[in-house]
Design goal:
The protein is an alpha+beta fold and 103 residues long. It contains 4 helices and 4 strands. A 4-stranded antiparallel beta sheet has the order 1-2-3-4, covered by helices on one side. A hairpin with a 3-residue loop joins strand 3 and strand 4. It starts with a strand and ends with a helix. Bound molecules: zinc ion.
Length: 103
């Protein structure tokens, strides 16, 4: 499964393999947080990394940490919160996920 493919919106090709989480032509990472940090480095150096790649990886990481049921409940709660607060949905989801996955 891929999180981002090379396209006009993306300078990276990121997917999951049996070896781990792969940023093609860079590295293979054991877990999602390391890959996310690497993708932020790409952004900082001016590469395009689509927002949906971060969203998919963050969703998956939350599901790994919390279990799919809890992660799903958090996403639903974030949708309600976004509606109430007028925050962009991605921001609401990220904040709620971060709060829930913080150790
Ligand atoms: Zn890379």
């Amino acid at each position: 499964m891929s999180y981002a493919r090379l396209s006009v919106d993306s300078d990276v090709y990121v997917y999951r393999s049996e070896q781990g989480y792969v940023c093609a032509m860079c590295y293979v990472f054991d877990d999602i947080p390391d890959l996310l940090a690497h993708l932020r480095d790409h952004l900082r150096s001016g590469d395009k990394v689509p927002e949906y790649a971060f969203v998919r990886l963050e969703d998956e990481w939350a599901a790994q940490l919390l279990g799919p049921e809890t992660a799903g409940a958090i996403l639903e709660a974030a949708e309600d919160w976004a509606k109430e607060s007028g925050k962009p949905i991605e921001e609401a989801r990220r904040e709620m996920r971060d709060a829930a996955t913080k150790q």
